[in-house]
Specification:
With 393 residues, the protein is of the alpha/beta class. It contains 14 helices and 17 strands. It has helices at residues 35-49, 77-84, 96-101, 124-131, 150-154, 165-179, 198-204, 216-224, 239-252, 293-305, 325-339, 350-359, 373-380, 385-388; strands at 15-19, 26-27, 30-31, 53-57, 88-91, 107-110, 136-139, 161-163, 185-189, 210-213, 255-257, 261-265, 274-278, 287-291, 308-312, 344-347, 367-368. Strand 2 (26-27) and strand 3 (30-31) form a beta hairpin.
Length: 393
């Protein structure tokens, strides 16, 4: 394993600098989805129960190194207090030392760490400034472990360090799933653009037995195979790249499943008129917005023969009906197999989680990762700075 857990640390009387991810969605000034806050509760509670003082370090949005009032973590404070059932002391970094001095065995939340210009530069002076506030460093934010920032990487090298409950859960699950997966392994990769997931696709064709490609990126592959994709979202300039990935998959013995039939419409609007056509028969003035029923049947058949499923990205424009059909049907089939004990299912990424929630099956998957970028980079086999730093202590 290589990294320590909270159980291996002596926390009594210790100030525990705890990197968490409470970068939650907000609508009209209120938290609209508290999932990330709920997931850090076990770590915070354990530190308190062990006699420690949890000092939470987190970010919200991308303020680019200066205070932005609308990106204050104050918006998350009421939900955090509700989740913990406790009062949380909220402080700026400038006032943190004094606040912590009077907060033994209480929860302290420091204002958005990305307000500090040195955070994203992994500045050693800021790291030392934070380290001086605590005795132990705990990283419970797997979702930002791919960032070499002060609060995720540099700080871990200055204090005795460990993984929090959520971090340990994420790492253990992904190591078990991707390290020595139960085969056959099938991966679903969807989303808008192939360019954002080139490394992932190149890596997966060497790791999995079946690779299902959906969403806008499937259009690029269809175009690369000579199909007219009309006005669909498509990166025509990456046709050669798509063909290279197909060739690598064939050489590796990985079956790539692309849409054989597609749902097309003339506008990307809810309840637009649509029709299902062969993947080679998209009209010149139409857009491919989802996979068709025949494709879904093939995907479900693939799931039924697999032992492990890794999912990142929707199969269509799931945010708008009726273009959520393929994503919903495939997700529900995966959930049914999971419940029956026939399939291990792991999913990650913001759009993926939203899609699975919309399909009503998020709670039925084996594991849902809170991470997006970190989940992708882990799947690619890249070293994550926030994880690597934990191995030093």
């Amino acid at each position: 394993m290589g990294w320590k857990t909270l159980d291996e640390m002596r926390l009594m009387g210790k100030r525990v600098l705890t990197r968490v991810d409470i970068n939650v969605p907000v609508k009209n000034g209120f938290v609209s989805d508290p999932t990330r806050i709920d997931r850090i509760v076990p770590t915070v509670q354990y530190i308190l129960q062990s006699g420690g003082t949890p000092i939470l370090i987190a970010h919200f949005g991308r303020p680019k190194g200066s205070p932005v009032p609308e990106m204050s973590l104050a918006v998350a404070l009421p939900v955090l207090e509700s989740a913990l059932g406790l009062t949380v002391k909220f402080t700026t970094l400038d006032n943190a030392r004094e606040t912590i001095a009077f907060s033994k065995n209480q929860v302290v939340l420091i204002e958005n760490i990305r307000f500090e210009p040195g955070e994203e530069q992994n500045d050693s002076a800021l790291a030392q400034r934070l380290a001086d506030l605590g005795d132990i460093y705990c990283n419970d934010a797997f979702s930002v472990a791919h960032r070499a920032h002060v609060s995720t990487e540099a700080l871990a090298r200055l204090l005795p360090s460990c993984a929090g409950r959520l971090m340990a859960e994420e790492l253990s699950t992904l190591e078990a799933t991707l390290g020595t997966p139960k085969r056959p392994v099938v991966a679903v990769v969807g989303g808008a653009k192939i360019s954002s997931k080139l490394d992932l696709l190149g890596s997966l064709v060497r790791q999995v037995d079946h690779l299902i490609i959906g969403g806008g990126m499937a259009n690029t592959f269809l175009a690369a195979l000579g199909h007219d994709v009309g006005k669909s979202l498509c990166e025509h300039n990456l046709a050669d790249t798509a063909r290279t990935i197909l060739a690598k998959a064939e050489k590796s013995g990985c079956e790539i499943i692309l849409p054989s039939d597609v749902v097309v419409a003339h506008s990307l609007t809810a309840h637009a008129d649509y029709e299902t056509v062969d993947a080679s028969a998209c009209h010149a003035d139409a857009m491919i917005l989802d996979a068709g029923a025949a494709t879904v049947a093939r995907i479900v058949a693939c799931f039924s023969q697999a032992s492990t499923l890794i999912w990142n990205g929707p199969l269509g424009a799931f945010e708008l009906k009726p273009f959520d059909g393929a994503t919903n049907a495939a997700a529900q089939a995966a959930a049914t197999l999971t419940i029956a004990g026939k399939l291990i299912t792991v999913a990650g990424g913001g759009d993926t989680v939203a899609a699975l929630n919309q399909a009503g099956v998020a709670n039925d998957f084996t594991y849902i990762s809170t991470a997006g970028g970190a989940f992708l980079e882990w799947m690619e086999g890249k070293e994550l700075p926030g994880i690597a730093a934990l191995y030093y202590k």
